[in-house]
């Protein structure tokens, strides 16, 4: 902590981006990752610790033109309390419901969860399945600019993202799924919250008669980043989710995951879970 | 030396001004700088809930909160909760229901329960269990804590609110 | 009745019969804990909350190597840091002496480290931050030694020795050696820390008489206490060299003496004050290195020194429950009568010896005496490794023994073709029995426990239904399992005395101060002792103040352990109260001319026993006694020693004055596609002698059940190559509120003749059979029997899908 020199709390996106531009900044949102990681030395605090709490542009949940904009500072509790999220982005809502504890949900932000980029991060997996994109803000030439990065390209490794040091994650944009979309989130653990996922699965699709359309499948904690599973999706797209299709999808999934063994699970067990639970998740989502 | 910063906030209803090191946690500020020892250190990483306080009306783990980030906010600790009517009702319910053994987790649970009852007045068994999932207790097995919160929630007499999100 | 100086017998108030109005009683009521309002308001000051003016803060440098020789330690940079008052290593305290049950453990390590927790140096500084910074400046050079990671490795021929050389003050310090002091610890020629051997009957004969024999190897894992309040201590010397310790110990009087030996001073110069304790569960029965180290720092700096652990440190450097590999061979006849048991165990002792090494003492009671078994042979070895070392933990080995014994009760029942309940009933102990080990079951509700738990849970029917669903398509299976336990419930005579003293004074306003040696660790001893005293003196609970935390004030007690406090300290408190009552009634008799036994104390008054007519208000009467020519105060003392016996060298003898019994039925759900086991319901029937405080005893049982649930399903201290992989609550999973089962608990009241008001101790009982019952339930759900704990999802999944390695008895044998 010796390196920490100043604590800054800007009051606008412009001011925050300006501080960031000058460099050597640790960005602080809810603090639920920054604090413990800095205490154990996993994260080295930069000379400037910048709290985003007072930046109004980073707040709020709103829908415009078929896109839901979730501010980076929206807390997990706010997502849970949003009717829009619950009704239209239910797979994300389910993940929030399994997120840590009430105390942490009240502090932790969506932006913080994404930027922490844990392969097991709870909101990352459903957002991948929802085709979300990250909105990154910076102030390269005296003016705040935004760029958008599909979430599938945002995560580059454990704890690493496509965000540069001069950029701030301002929001996440999610195209509004059709009203008849189904979605299901699964996180493996023995308790509802307060568990770090041994594996996580998000599934979204539309049902067109008997067949599945617009299938999206994402996995957490089975690769260095949360991943989309295109071959698994292809195995399901345009097909009725019968036993044979489900088995084909589960087999495809095993070809797409690269789990490791750690204190939470062995690679073998993670693969077994992906296989078994993908089938259950789809079955459940489609109320088969 | 790590820099310090001046902050101003409300603590249990009283305005405070303080100079804190930039890396200090709210838990350390409360216990070491302000002598409010009702808020406990249990793990320092948000896993046990012994350090739960209210920040702007929401329960949080004070061990995960930077003291500097408390500037302009309203903090309520167990010392504050205990003197509110809801806190007194909860205390009586914890005592009468046998929800206290070694008592180390109790202040955090009291604060969390107070927030739970306030936000979900009609909370039932399932909501209460989920509501305290972030508070570890090693002595009681939780049963009597759940009963205590249910009884205090019931005593509040507020009807279950329609549309509040029922979890679990 | 009213034995003044004899032992206090049960007093079920026979005088109540036929009386109007009935005499009100506190026994069996729901009495809130006296300390609960303060605790719920955040006002209770634990050791972490105490600030002694001028205190320095200590931190300990622990080994970074699992097993290594210490080549050099350079503390110069740490000493130079501003705000640092002392940096010490073993070289600075050549007079230090080894601690622990086998005295094989020097607080500061001299020439070698034997586990990752090992204390290499310590700092006292103005703040914790400075102390922490100073630790980073200490340079230690190690020369790695081969790591002994398992008991198998430790027992292999030519294994590296963990304690090859003598160590102790005298061996490493020429001054003391020349002074002729004995070597403190002589070292060990092998890695065997401790052995226990016990036999009754002739197992060969038993086996020859058997129609069915089963043999299995069971593996029990590491768990740790996880007290919510981390460990801490404050030490301060006065100018005369008297030591004041603020300590979380569960055994203040034993530790007073041990600390004195450690420091080479008179025990009379040590005072221990116990602030309220944030959880004990057996973790605080031994002295751990941080305590002497903080004392050394206080001695060297001549300042008060405080140290409080971090949570990570608590996981790494506080004791564990003992991991055990256990081989059990059991037999029975066709009619279901047990014939013999042969047991061999290897306990992973870790690098040093604490109470964990002695848990076989309790395990053998379950093996020999839970059920009637004519022939038993039992051999255990606690083996040194470079792992964390094991202490005592609620149940004291009994969870491990019960896990194996109850699995075999199910297996033998199935072999014979009897149901598990009938098989157990056939072999269950009965009141009056004296077992071959010499345990005398004066009160015994075991058969009642079995029948009640089975009936209330509908055990037999559910068991049959679940079994019929093994082949169902549904991947989620239901199971029900039963297990029982026997545990000491009237103290345990291990030390020269198993007693407890009470001093009781009643002031001019009829306020009682109860000074007891028994500590409150959250279990509610203050409340139950007050209740017992008020029951005798006819006073409300508000009339009592309990003083129980200062060795300079309170009379001797052996400590809070072995489920003994209600029984031993309760009898002691009753004894003191009855003496006070006799004194008061005698004075009142003299004043009224009525016979003493025609009087009683009720509702704060001296009354006529037959009519309840109030004669004197008690406070007023006591003032009269005080401010009279007699000038008398009512102050009494009592020391209670239970009528139990020390076991002989063959481990025979009636070690406890009473024994607690319980049966628990666990209902579970197993998801065969994930391995997740959910505990749905626990139906328990507990022989508790008598319920004193219903609220308190429910809390003990419920808390114990959930702790047992954690042992069975979620908790797993992962130790690989001597390294703890999950020293945090994120990955060491305690049960949380959403996971707890429905609990249906019935109390079987056997009115123990020796117990206070008929009660027996039950603090440990409820945690003991959950894992055993869950194992039997998993078998009932799936047809798969799992022999290794814990039943975490991956372990269960592997077992269900043939991907688990069954525990094997290998080199250790």
Describe what you observe in this structure.
- The complex is a heterotrimer of chains A (288), B (168) and C (813).
- With 288 residues, chain A is of the alpha+beta class.
- Helices cover 34% and strands 25% of the residues of chain A.
- The longest helix of chain A has 19 residues, at 267-285.
- The longest helix of chain B is centred in the last third of the chain and has 14 residues, at 106-119.
- Chain B starts with a strand and ends in a 12-residue tail after the last helix.
- In chain B, 66% of the residues are buried.
- Chain C is an alpha+beta fold and 813 residues long.
- Helix content of chain C is 28%, strand content 23%.
- Chain C has 22 helices and 28 strands.
- In chain C, strand 17 (500-506) and strand 18 (512-516) form a beta hairpin.
- The radius of gyration of chain C is 28 Å and the shape is globular.
- Chain C starts with 35 loop residues before the first helix and ends in a 13-residue tail after the last helix.
- Residues 1-12 and 169-181 of chain C have low confidence and may be disordered.
- Classes of the chains: A alpha+beta (288), B alpha+beta (168), C alpha+beta (813).
- Chains in contact: A-B, A-C, B-C.
- Chains B and C meet through helix 3, helix 4, helix 5 and helix 6 of B and helix 1 and helix 19 of C.
Short description:
The complex is a heterotrimer of chains A (288), B (168) and C (813). By secondary structure, chain B is an alpha+beta fold.
């Amino acid at each position: 902590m010796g390196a920490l020199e100043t604590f800054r709390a800007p009051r606008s996106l412009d001011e925050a981006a300006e501080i960031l531009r000058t460099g050597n900044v640790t960005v602080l949102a809810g603090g639920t990752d920054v604090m413990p990681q800095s205490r154990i030395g996993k994260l080295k605090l930069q000379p400037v610790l910048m709290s985003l709490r007072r930046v109004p542009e980073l707040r709020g949940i709103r829908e415009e033109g078929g896109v839901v904009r979730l501010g980076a500072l929206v807390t997990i509790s706010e997502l849970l309390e949003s009717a829009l999220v619950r009704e239209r982005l239910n797979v994300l809502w389910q993940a929030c419901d399994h997120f840590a504890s009430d105390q942490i949900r009240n502090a932790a932000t969506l932006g913080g969860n994404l930027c922490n980029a844990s392969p097991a991060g709870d909101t990352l997996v459903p957002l991948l399945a929802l085709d979300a994109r990250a909105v990154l803000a910076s102030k390269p030439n005296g003016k705040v600019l935004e760029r958008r990065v599909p979430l599938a390209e945002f995560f580059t490794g454990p704890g690493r993202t496509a965000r540069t040091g001069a950029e701030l994650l301002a929001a996440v944009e999610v195209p509004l799924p059709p009203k008849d979309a189904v979605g299901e989130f699964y996180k493996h653990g023995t308790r509802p919250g307060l568990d770090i996922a041994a594996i996580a699965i998000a599934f979204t699709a539309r049902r067109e008669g008997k067949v599945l359309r617009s299938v999206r499948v994402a996995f957490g904690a089975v690769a260095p980043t949360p991943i989309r599973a295109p071959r698994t999706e292809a195995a399901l797209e345009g097909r009725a989710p019968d036993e044979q299709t489900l088995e084909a999808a589960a087999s495809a999934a095993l070809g797409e995951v690269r789990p490791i063994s750690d204190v939470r699970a062995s690679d073998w067990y993670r693969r077994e879970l992906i296989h078994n639970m993908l089938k259950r998740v789809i079955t459940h989502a489609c109320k088969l | 030396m790590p820099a310090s910063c001046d902050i101003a906030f409300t603590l249990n209803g009283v305005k405070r001004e303080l100079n804190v090191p930039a890396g200090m946690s709210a838990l350390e500020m409360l216990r070491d700088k302000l002598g409010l020892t009702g808020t406990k250190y249990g793990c320092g990483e948000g896993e046990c809930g012994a350090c739960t306080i209210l920040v702007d009306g929401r329960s949080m783990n004070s061990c995960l909160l930077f003291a500097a980030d408390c500037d302009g906010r309203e903090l309520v600790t167990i010392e504050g909760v205990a003197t509110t009517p809801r806190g007194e009702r909860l205390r009586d319910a914890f005592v009468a229901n046998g929800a206290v053994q070694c008592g180390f987790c109790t202040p955090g649970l009291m604060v969390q329960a107070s927030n739970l009852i306030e936000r979900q007045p009609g909370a039932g068994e399932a909501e209460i269990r989920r509501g305290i999932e972030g508070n570890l207790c090693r002595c009681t097995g939780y049963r009597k804590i759940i009963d205590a919160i249910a009884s205090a929630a019931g005593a509040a007499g507020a009807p279950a609110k329609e549309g509040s999100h029922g979890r679990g | 009745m009213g034995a003044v100086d004899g032992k206090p017998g049960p007093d079920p108030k026979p005088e109540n019969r036929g009386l109007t109005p009935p005499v009100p009683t506190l026994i069996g009521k729901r009495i809130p804990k006296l300390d609960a309002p303060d605790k719920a308001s955040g006002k209770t000051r634990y050791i972490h909350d105490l600030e002694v003016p001028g205190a320095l803060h200590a931190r300990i440098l622990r080994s970074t190597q699992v097993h290594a020789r210490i080549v050099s330690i350079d503390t110069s940079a740490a000493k130079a840091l501003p705000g640092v008052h002392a940096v010490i290593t073993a070289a600075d305290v050549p007079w230090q002496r080894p601690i622990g049950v086998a005295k094989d453990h020097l607080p500061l390590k001299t020439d070698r480290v034997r586990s990752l927790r090992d204390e290499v140096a310590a700092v006292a500084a103005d703040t914790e931050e400075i102390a922490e910074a100073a630790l980073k400046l200490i340079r230690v050079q190690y020369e790695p030694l081969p790591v002994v990671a398992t008991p198998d490795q430790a027992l292999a021929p030519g294994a590296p020795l963990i304690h090859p050389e003598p160590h102790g003050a005298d061996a490493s310090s020429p001054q003391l050696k020349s002074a002729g002091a004995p070597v403190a610890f002589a070292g060990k020629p092998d890695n065997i820390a401790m052995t226990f051997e016990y036999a009754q009957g002739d197992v060969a004969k038993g086996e020859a008489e058997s129609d069915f024999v089963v043999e299995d190897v069971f593996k029990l894992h590491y768990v740790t206490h996880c007290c919510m309040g981390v460990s801490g201590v404050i030490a301060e010397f006065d100018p005369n060299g008297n030591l004041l310790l603020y300590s979380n110990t569960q055994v203040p009087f034993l530790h007073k003496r041990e600390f004195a030996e450690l420091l080479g001073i008179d025990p009379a110069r040590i005072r221990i004050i116990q602030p309220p304790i944030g959880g004990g569960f057996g973790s605080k029965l031994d002295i751990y290195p941080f305590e002497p180290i903080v004392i050394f720092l206080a001695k060297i700096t001549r300042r008060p020194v405080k140290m409080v652990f971090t949570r990570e440190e608590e996981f790494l450097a506080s004791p564990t429950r003992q991991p055990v590999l256990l081989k059990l061979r059991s037999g029975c006849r066709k009619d279901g009568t047990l014939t013999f048991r042969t047991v061999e165990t290897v306990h992973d002792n870790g690098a040093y010896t604490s109470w964990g090494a002695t848990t076989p003492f309790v395990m053998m009671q379950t093996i020999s005496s839970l059920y009637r078994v004519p022939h038993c042979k039992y051999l255990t070895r606690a083996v040194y490794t470079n792992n964390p070392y094991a202490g005592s933990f609620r149940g004291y080995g009994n969870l491990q023994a019960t896990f194996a014994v109850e699995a075999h009760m199910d297996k033998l029942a199935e072999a014979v073709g009897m149901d598990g309940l009938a098989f157990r009933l056939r072999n269950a102990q009965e009141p009056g029995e004296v077992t071959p080990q010499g345990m005398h079951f004066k009160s015994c509700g075991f058969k009642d426990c079995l029948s009640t738990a089975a009936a209330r849970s509908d055990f037999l029917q559910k068991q049959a239904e679940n079994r019929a669903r093994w082949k169902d398509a549904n991947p989620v299976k239901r199971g029900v399992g039963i297990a029982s336990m026997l545990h000491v419930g009237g103290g345990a005579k291990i030390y020269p005395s198993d007693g407890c003293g009470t001093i009781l004074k009643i002031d001019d306003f009829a306020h009682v101060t109860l000074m007891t040696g028994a500590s409150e660790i959250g279990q509610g001893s203050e409340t139950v002792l007050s209740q017992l005293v008020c029951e005798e003196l006819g006073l409300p609970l508000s009339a009592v103040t309990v003083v129980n935390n200062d060795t300079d004030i309170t009379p001797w007690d052996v400590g809070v352990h072995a489920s003994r406090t209600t029984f031993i300290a309760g009898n002691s408190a009753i004894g003191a109260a009855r003496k006070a009552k006799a004194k008061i009634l005698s004075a009142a008799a003299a004043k009224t001319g009525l016979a003493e036994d025609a009087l009683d104390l009720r509702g704060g008054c001296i009354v006529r026993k037959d009519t309840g007519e109030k004669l004197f208000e008690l406070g007023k009467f006591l003032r009269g006694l005080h401010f009279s020519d007699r000038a008398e105060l009512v102050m009494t003392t009592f020391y209670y020693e239970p009528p139990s016996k020390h076991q002989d060298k063959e481990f025979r003898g009636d070690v406890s004055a009473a024994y607690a019994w319980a049966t628990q039925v666990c209902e579970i759900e197993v998801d065969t596609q994930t391995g997740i086991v959910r505990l749905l319901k626990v139906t328990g029937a507990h022989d508790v002698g008598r319920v004193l405080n219903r609220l308190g005893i429910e809390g003990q049982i419920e808390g114990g059940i959930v702790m047992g649930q954690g042992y069975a399903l979620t908790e797993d201290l992962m130790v690989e190559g001597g390294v703890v992989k999950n020293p945090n609550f994120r990955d060491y999973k305690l049960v949380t509120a959403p996971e707890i089962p429905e609990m249906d608990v019935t109390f079987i009241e056997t009115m123990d003749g020796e117990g206070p008001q008929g009660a027996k101790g039950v603090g440990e009982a409820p945690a003991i059979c959950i894992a055993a019952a869950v194992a039997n339930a998993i078998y009932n759900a799936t047809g798969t029997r799992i022999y290794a704990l814990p039943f975490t999802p991956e372990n269960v999944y592997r077992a269900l899908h043939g991907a688990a390695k069954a525990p094997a008895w290998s080199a250790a044998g």
